[in-house]
């Protein structure tokens, strides 16, 4: 997604809007936050709730007992939330990063200790166009849990405990295995933007499956 960071929404710089959407859970695997008009104003410095609704980034989800609206993110919000302020890269560099991404997917699927395997990676956005330069590489990742559904909760909690990380929330523990695999897949590459697969399906944007590779599918 190509962004002009000098633009504003309701007078608020896009970087602040992006950070607000991230705070509300856009583009993450964690839970989403609903905010009041006052909450939004407090985080960005002024009241832009109506403008964000008009831009299709938020919508009213409910009213409080005094009739005031609560807002939540829309399916379009992750596109802006995932955009990074990075130096643009050329097509050759982007292709190299994708090759490395697919290699990491192979390594993940060969790792017997991990709870999830990479079932599918779908690219969208500028990477699947003929753009000569890109701001990032947008992908959606579909993971597959290796064990039975009944084992999911305890397996994730056990994996979280084994990591030695302290003060994890219950939500962090329950999604630990999925987060772990996505972090390994990104490989700390800031140009890789990962979107939840269910969000991708709602964006109605052109896509291209890049994993498994065609030769992998023929081998199955």
- What is the CA-based Rg, rounded? 19 Å
Let me know the average pLDDT: 89
Give unreliable regions as ranges: none
* SS element count, helices: 10
- Following the backbone from N to C, one meets helices and strands in this order, namely EEHEHHEEHEHEEEHHHEHEH
As a percent range, the share of helical residues equals: 40-55%
> In total, how many domains does the architecture comprise?
2
Outline: globular
The secondary-structure class comes to alpha+beta
Intertermini distance: 34 Å
Strands, total number: 11
Largest sheet: 4 strands, mixed
- Main sheet: which strands, in order across? 10-9-7-11
- Proportion in β-strands: 15-25%
Explain what the structure shows.
The protein is of the alpha+beta class. It has helices at residues 14-23, 37-44, 49-54, 77-81, 91-110, 152-162, 170-174, 176-186, 197-203, 214-219; strands at residues 8-9, 12-13, 35-36, 58-63, 69-73, 89-90, 116-124, 133-134, 137-145, 192-196, 207-211. The chain folds into two domains: 8-81, Arc Repressor Mutant, subunit A, CATH 1.10.10.10; 89-219. The protein is built from ten helices and eleven strands. The strands form four sheets. It has a four-stranded mixed beta sheet with strand order 10-9-7-11. Strands 3-5-4 form a three-stranded antiparallel beta sheet. Strands 1-2 form a two-stranded antiparallel ribbon. Helix 5 packs across helix 8.
């Amino acid at each position: 997604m190509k962004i002009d960071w000098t633009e504003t929404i309701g007078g608020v710089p896009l970087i602040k809007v992006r950070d607000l959407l991230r705070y509300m859970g856009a583009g993450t695997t964690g839970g989403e936050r609903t905010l009041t008009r006052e909450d939004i104003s407090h985080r960005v410095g002024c009241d832009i709730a109506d403008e964000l609704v008009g831009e299709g980034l938020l919508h009213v989800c409910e009213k409080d007992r005094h009739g005031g609206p609560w807002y939540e993110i829309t399916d379009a919000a992750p596109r802006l939330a995932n955009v990074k302020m990075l130096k643009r890269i050329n097509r050759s560099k982007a292709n190299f990063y994708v090759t490395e991404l697919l290699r990491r997917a192979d390594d993940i699927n060969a790792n017997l200790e991990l709870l999830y395997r990479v079932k599918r990676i779908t690219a969208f956005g500028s990477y699947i166009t003929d753009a000569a330069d890109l701001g990032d590489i947008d992908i959606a990742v579909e993971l597959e849990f290796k064990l039975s559904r009944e084992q999911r909760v305890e397996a994730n909690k056990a994996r979280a405990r084994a990591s030695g990380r302290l003060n994890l929330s219950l939500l962090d523990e329950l999604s630990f295995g999925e987060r772990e695999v996505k972090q390994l897949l990104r490989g700390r590459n800031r140009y890789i933007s990962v979107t939840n697969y269910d969000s991708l399906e709602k964006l109605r944007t052109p896509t291209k499956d890049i994993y498994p590779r065609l030769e992998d599918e023929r081998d199955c």
